[in-house]
Write a structure and sequence with these properties.
The complex is a heterodimer. Chain A is an all-beta fold. Chain A is 0% helix and 51% strand. Chain B has no helices and eleven strands. In chain B, strands 2, 4, 5, 9, 10 and 11 form a six-stranded mixed β-sheet that branches. In chain B, strands 1-3-8-7-6 form a five-stranded antiparallel β-sheet, with no helix packed on it. The chains are: A mainly beta, B mainly beta.
Chain lengths: 115, 112
């Protein structure tokens, strides 16, 4: 079972460059989300989607865009990378809303460094 | 300031010892989850607790949700090197649309 697949695993960007982190899930989950993980701060929600065509902002959305054209895919776009966006990014999916107690499945993470 | 405060931040113990990790808040959560994360991987769900006072056991791990649903604890009995990892608590909070809020985590190292 593939579960949640993120690419790339590692990326180095120069300040001002743009890029897209890809996320795909094969579990037919409606709910998908993106988190960033920084030392001492846990995981913080960037954007989430409750279904194809529907996205919303999380706790730290600035500098990021998302779209959800299909149930399977939920890419995260960095529009103009800044050093403050250096972090580990996790994509996650679940059958329904995260707070409902459903099991959330995380990808393996994408390590992004902005220089 | 974290909505969910985890303690301790770091814990290094010998194999066979017992330990408890705490997750505290001044807010009430509708449910609380515990995750374990190993280096280079994403978090993996261990348990979900939803009822105040609820206790769940997973082999050597015991999870408890406080009566007021503001805090939780994870107790590991006879820790093994395989328990090493980052333990995260996450709560669903009405003020955040019931989306999960994560604590900063507790790094556990169990030495053989």
């Amino acid at each position: 079972n593939a579960g949640v697949t993120q690419t790339p695993k590692f990326q180095v960007l120069k300040t001002g460059q743009s890029m897209t982190l890809q996320c795909a899930q094969d579990m037919n989950h409606e709910y998908m989300s993106w988190y960033r993980q920084d030392p001492g701060m846990g995981l913080r929600l960037i954007h989430y989607s409750v279904g194809a065509g529907i996205t919303d902002q999380g706790e730290v959305p600035n500098g990021y865009n998302v779209s959800r054209s299909t149930t399977e895919d939920f890419p995260l776009r960095l529009l103009s990378a800044a050093p403050s966006q250096t972090s580990v990014y996790f994509c996650a999916s679940s059958y329904s809303a995260e707070g409902s107690g459903n099991t959330i499945y995380f990808g393996e993470g994408s390590w992004l460094t902005v220089v | 300031t974290q909505l969910l405060e985890q303690s301790p931040q770091f814990l290094s113990i010998q194999e066979g010892e017992n330990l408890t990790v705490y997750c505290n808040s001044s807010s009430v959560f509708s449910s609380l989850q515990w995750y374990r994360q190993e280096p280079g991987e994403g978090p993996v769900l261990l348990v979900t607790v939803v009822t105040g006072g609820e206790v769940k056991k997973l082999k050597r791990l015991t999870f408890q949700f406080g009566d007021a649903r503001k805090d939780s604890s994870l107790h590991i009995t006879a820790a093994q090197p395989g328990d090493t990892g980052l333990y995260l608590c996450a709560g669903a909070h009405e003020e955040y649309g019931n989306k999960l809020v994560f604590g900063a985590g507790t790094i556990l190292r169990v030495k053989s």
